[in-house]
Amino acid sequence: MNKAKTLAFTLLFLIIGGALMLYGLSLEVPNYAPVRWGLLVIGYVFFGVLGTGVSTYNSLYRAFKWGNQEGNPLHKLSSRLEWLALALLVPGWIMVFASVYKPMETTYIYTSFNPYSRIAWNGVLYLLVGVGIILSILALMGEKKDTDRPIWNKVIKLIAAADVGIILYTIAADLILDANLGAVFGYLSTWVLDFGAFVPMMYVVLSFYGGIAALSLVSYAYWALSRKDDGGWVKSVARDGLIATLALSFMFAWWMWIMMTNQEAWPWTSLLYSGPYFKLLWDAVVFAGLLVPIVSYLVATFKSNRHALLIGSIGSLVGMFSIVYTSVIIPQIITWYYSNSPISPSGSTWLYELRTYLNGASPYSLLQFTIIPHDLYIFVGGAIFFMAMVGLGALLLPLEEDEKPRHWFFR
To answer: Which residue among 48, 108, 171, 250 sits deepest, i.e. has the most Cβ atoms within 10 Å of its Cβ?
Structure first.
């Protein structure tokens, strides 16, 4: 795609995405919604973990192939992938602020930081991850030819000299954010204790699974529009996607086993196995998110087939969104009548629970989750804004391997 078309589509996405988000912010957020963490929370987890996944995956290849970047299958894509990671992080960051009742008061996360709050750590870690990705982009630019601005040359070369430290810092910040996001939802008061330590581990695996899918999808779109990509990375990425999908399959099977074999988890188990979330589990997660990618990545690995990689990446993104949806929403839709959860202190509510049992009544009820217009407009606008960010990178930054900085800011 030529520069004029790229500029036109970028401006179009900026206008549409920005307008939808502004309109969504103007809508009322109902205080009476029974499920308070809705689509925007799902959105900032989804985009955030995708961004950290792309960044971690790219950074690990750069670290392990240090000194021999020609052996790195992502070497020609490194700058583009780091910008992709930042572009994914931006809508997630927007949704973090938009998901609270009073967005402007989220500055208290930084001005009155609470080190015991996982939510507060999310705000800080998003910022630290963003700093690491920006530094990685600048370091990669420093490896290119000199620009026409001596002062800028000195700054960017200094950053490039610290590349190893930046890579390690970025990997650490990415993984800690993934684990902390998992901890926020794993330790919700309605879950049984088994899930608390498990969900952070699953989110770390989920970041690789989703990150590989995101970079595969965007790289396929780039190739379809420009035909400049030689595709030398396809086989390696497909292989890694297969490994990540198999790892996630194991983690998800482990999660399901915990739910089936723990009597305290039967309310959630029934929702997924035979209740209203049956199709979400078996169609979206197991079939689209695990089986389809495994087969597609196998074909792409042995045949170096872009189209198979595309199918696998789309299935993975469907699966990832569904897993995030499950881990965010399901703990919130069960409300207990006499206790917070099956892990209430022993002897605290036994009389009420015994009366409920003798009367043949359920000790809990299900809350209805609905997507409110405020969240929907901001989520869709954020997704479109992500595409605008990808276009901005192509217009303003030297993201190709041998591309010389040519834009006014970098001259």
So the answer is: 48
